[in-house]
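Hi R.,

Here's the chain you asked about this morning:
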Amino acid sequence: NKAVAITGTLEKMQRKDAMQIIANLGGICQDNVNKETNFLILGNNDYNPQLRGKKSNKLIKAEELKLKGNDIEIMSENVFYDILDEYNTKSEE
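And here is the predicted structure, written out as tokens:
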């Protein structure tokens, strides 16, 4: 029941596949970051020539919300996969 947004290009899967996994686990996929966003997954921005070495608008917004006390976690793509692995391990037990 958590709201999740993705920024950047994911290395290991396509964004639509990641969003489908999130939805299958009961998450709410978002195109943008707002007060309801619980997680922002950081993909790679190196493929976007406009962002090279800079933060995406979603990341900037997430950081602003976090500073204001909103319950938002910013995580790397690898942490996202670790959480999926943990979930899959628990569901197999």
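One quick note: The beta strands are 3-7, 28-30, 39-42, 73-76.

Cheers,
M.
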